[in-house]
Design brief:
Length: 462
């Protein structure tokens, strides 16, 4: 599956593009003469673009709160989720949706309620019903350690943890930097190209191939499997149309990987994920479905999330030229900017748990077996936990205090690796390119799980 990249002209046909490119540069674009003071700049230019579907979704956010169904992927595809969650946090922080495409479910929208749920894994299980609001069909289950509770969870997590230990990350840094430089040096100049395809996908796929020690020339298979593993089969441009088709492709993935797994098992233990799984006591004898599930977890975990932080970070900077100028003037702010990008983008929209017993939160009675969805996108905009949360501020205090990596026993294994990749990207990007013009709005993924950008047209002068 290849993303069908919208050209700027096709976006214009659909009324989605701006007449003026949004730019950012060392001096916020002012000296480059475009846009002129009369024309909308940065965020304003992109926000001025007409999107009737988004307008309709935003208007519905002032309707009766009982009717809210925040699991609708269209809310994320059109970036219309903000006002829904603002109302839920204020008026109904433990909201029940009795009917949706995914069945009935509870929504937690406040930062502190999400944290409290994350740490109480005995009450809010990942194993009973999985981690997404959508259920995996009973006969097509693919267990993995993110879908288990302690103690099994802890044993399997321990096996892969060394890949992201500080010492190993330090060893990986020169290779990540060298690959990042190569990708950035190869991007087109003076012509429109898709940042997602040329930079975000390429860099994250290279990284995945590295941590799996997967054949370099076949690395795009990893991207394909990852896209298949997380897509919403109901999306118009979904790479697969049914859960059965998804299962078949993931079975093919397991087939390809099992050859490598066997090779690694016969060899001495090495520092790549497949070798770790092949030698780990808790993982070396996994049944096929569990092998499929854990591979998909590690591929999606290391791919879609970081990819979208790379695209979303560029977009956020172009929408906030003042922050971009601040970063250029103070490159020591890069680590802090990276954390703010990850909060701002919130690449994983939600995680779901299932109540293992009857429980009450803020007076609402949740029954054993009910789905409880923790909306990270909302927690990361909770004004009670984060100061001025709707502003993108690269030097905000306590910048690592966000929910994008989750919390508790399942807190993202790869968080330091993701931060490292993003730090290197910005360290290499700033001195290389004086200006990157974002030429039109992003095309976003139809998904309530991955906050994805499918394409982002840009141009780099020079
Ligand atoms: C778990 C987000 C990068 C591997 C998670 C969770 C979130 C998350 C929200 C679930 C946390 C919870 O339930 O409390 C992100 C974001 C990333 C990122 C936003 C990038 C910006 C990575 C990378 C890897 C990775 C690079 C590669 C190794 C995993 C794994 C888990 C996980 C294996 C399961 C952990 C467990 O269940 O114990 N991630 N992730 N992630 N992530 Fe990441």
């Amino acid at each position: 599956w290849r993303h069908s990249r919208p050209t700027l002209s096709s976006a214009r046909r659909e009324g989605l593009s701006s007449p003026t490119p949004a730019r950012f540069s060392r001096d916020t674009g002012a000296r480059h003469g475009i846009p002129s003071p009369q024309q909308p700049q940065g965020a304003n230019a992109l926000n001025a673009i007409k999107n009737p579907r988004r307008d309709a979704l935003l208007a519905a956010a002032s309707g009766p709160i009982e009717g809210f169904d925040v699991s609708s992927p269209a809310l994320y595809e059109h970036q219309a989720w903000g006002p829904y969650f603002a109302r839920l946090r204020r008026e109904d922080p433990v909201h029940h949706c009795p009917e949706s495409r995914f069945g009935p479910y509870w929504s937690l929208s406040r930062y502190r309620d999400i944290m409290a749920t994350e740490v109480d894994h005995a009450t809010f299980s990942s194993e009973i019903g999985g981690i997404q609001v959508i259920d995996q069909p009973k006969d097509l289950q693919r267990p993995s350690f993110i879908r288990t509770d302690p103690p099994k969870h802890d044993e399997q997590r321990k096996v892969v943890q060394p890949i992201v230990a500080p010492g190993n990350l330090a060893k990986m840094e020169p290779l990540i930097r060298e690959r990042t430089r190569r990708v950035l040096d190869g991007v087109p100049r003076n012509e429109e190209f898709d940042w997602v395809e040329h930079v975000s996908i390429e860099l994250t796929t290279l990284m995945l191939a590295t941590i799996f020690d997967f054949p370099y020339e076949e690395r795009r298979k990893l991207t394909w499997w990852s896209d298949v593993a997380i897509c919403d089969v109901a999306a118009e441009d979904s790479p697969v149309r049914t859960e059965e088709a998804r299962f078949e492709i993931l079975k093919e993935m397991a087939g390809t990987m099992s050859g490598l797994f066997e090779e690694r098992r016969k060899g001495p233990p090495k520092f790549d994920l497949l070798s770790m799984l092949a030698h780990g006591e808790a993982t070396r004898e996994m049944p096929l479905r569990e092998f499929m599930g854990n591979l998909a977890l590690l591929i999606v975990g290391g791919n879609d999330t970081t990819r979208n932080s790379m695209s979303g970070g560029l977009l956020a900077m172009s929408e906030n030229p003042g922050e971009m100028a601040k970063l250029r003037a103070n490159p020591e702010l890069i680590p802090s900017a990276v954390s703010e990008i990850i909060r701002w983008v919130t690449p994983v929209i939600h995680m779901r748990r299932t109540a293992s017993r009857d429980v009450e939160i803020h007076g609402r009675r949740i029954r054993a077996g009910d789905k409880v969805v923790m909306w990270y996108v909302s927690g990361n905009r909770d004004e009670e936990a984060i100061e001025d949360p709707d502003s993108f501020r690269i030097d905000r205090p306590k910048v690592r205090q966000h929910l994008s990596f989750g919390f508790g026993v399942h807190r993202c294994v790869g968080n330091r690796l993701a931060e490292l990749q993003l730090r290197i990207l910005w360290e290499e990007l700033l001195p290389r390119f004086e200006q990157i013009e974002v030429l039109g709005p992003p095309r976003r993924l139809y998904s309530n799980f991955i906050h994805g950008i499918r394409s982002l047209p840009v141009r780099i002068p020079g």
